[in-house]
Design goal:
- This protein has 293 residues and is of the alpha+beta class.
- Helices cover 22% and strands 39% of the residues.
- Bound molecules: coenzyme A (COA).
Length: 293
């Protein structure tokens, strides 16, 4: 399946980038099925001949393909899904059929995606509008009042990583400074809060991109990254590891209180500033209103 994925990705890339010389025989005729049809982003139906003509006159580009996945629908019939980036990002689907020893595209559809831009800034530099949009975004992502004013407070005072489309915030991650204690030793931690992508912008790699920027910020600014989540797999892909030791909170007047309900959610990002972590020690955070972790 990996070989087939690589083979179809090469064909899709040559078509998407209009690099027809990279196709078998140096033209798209061999890879476009005679009964090929496409529904374009505008809704227009394209036939085999329309497409041959359009591709023949198109200029080569470097448009990237992301999240390319294939699924065998039946013997010799494969569904490919992926996104194309560049100035007109689109979500695409193709159906490929095996004809003799040549895979040929039988159907294609592309849906335009709203372009997204990325930036980062300190809380102090957030405009009132951006702050209100972050709050709206988090409320949409944690409905039924699950995103509280304490949660918003927890996300302020550090650095924000923002994805914006059509003048509004559609993705957000915050890293705030917190003192944690590892077996009693104080550590400067970058604590991740309010990681959210608007439902209609999900599965485009937005949160992964924001977290990659947040990771870099933590690695260059703090001794440790930490967060609490129920979405472990999402963070594991980005280098975060589950804490397996006990978690505690230091109450305002000093005593330590065990937070066993939080043990499962806590994850950390190691940095070069610390020796290798065993992950099984006692990790303590300072008290704050709302959720401690
Ligand atoms: C969790 C959350 C932030 C992810 O946002 P996102 O921008 O969709 O994230 P990404 O696109 O970077 O990737 C998310 C997942 O979708 C997958 N994915 C992304 N694009 C895809 C595509 N085109 N096809 C299939 N899978 C895709 C990623 O591989 C990843 O998979 P995983 O579930 O195996 O980890 C978002 O779902 C959200 O806001 N949830 C509610 C709030 C929340 O739970 N926040 C985080 C917990 S603290």
């Amino acid at each position: 399946m990996d070989d087939l994925r690589a083979r179809l990705l090469r064909l899709e890339l040559a078509l998407a980038q209009r690099r027809l010389a990279d196709l078998p025989g140096g033209t798209c005729e061999a890879v476009l099925h005679e009964a090929f049809r496409e529904i374009g982003a505008s809704g227009r139906w394209w036939t085999h001949d329309d497409t041959l003509e359009m591709l023949g006159g198109a200029e080569a580009s470097d448009v990237p393909i992301e999240r390319f996945e294939i699924e065998e629908l039946a013997p010799s019939v494969v569904l490919a899904t992926y996104d194309t980036g560049g100035s007109r990002p689109a979500r695409r689907v193709s159906v490929w059929v095996l004809d003799g020893d040549q895979w040929r595209m039988r159907f294609h559809q592309g849906t335009l995606l709203t372009p997204v831009s990325f930036r980062e800034c300190a809380t102090d530099d957030l405009s009132t509008t951006a702050l209100a949009q972050i709050l709206d975004l988090c409320r949409a992502c944690w409905p039924d009042g699950d995103f509280t004013t304490d949660d918003l407070e927890h996300a302020l005072g550090g650095r924000h990583f923002l994805a914006e489309a059509d003048g509004r915030v559609v993705g957000h991650t915050a890293v705030v400074p917190r003192m944690l204690e590892l077996e009693g030793r104080p550590l400067r931690a970058g604590y991740v809060e309010a990681v959210a992508t608007l439902p209609s912008f999900r599965r485009r790699g937005i949160a992964s991109r924001l977290m990659a920027d947040a990771n870099r910020h933590i690695e260059t600014t703090y001794e440790l990254g930490a967060l609490s989540t129920g979405e472990h797999r999402f963070y594991e892909r980005l280098g975060w590891r589950r804490w397996t030791g006990e978690t505690w909170v230091r109450e305002p007047d000093g005593p330590l209180v065990r937070t066993e309900d939080e043990d499962d959610g806590v994850m950390v990002l190691a940095t070069a500033a610390l020796p290798p972590l065993t992950l099984a020690e006692r990790l303590t955070c300072g008290w704050r209103p709302g959720d401690a972790w």
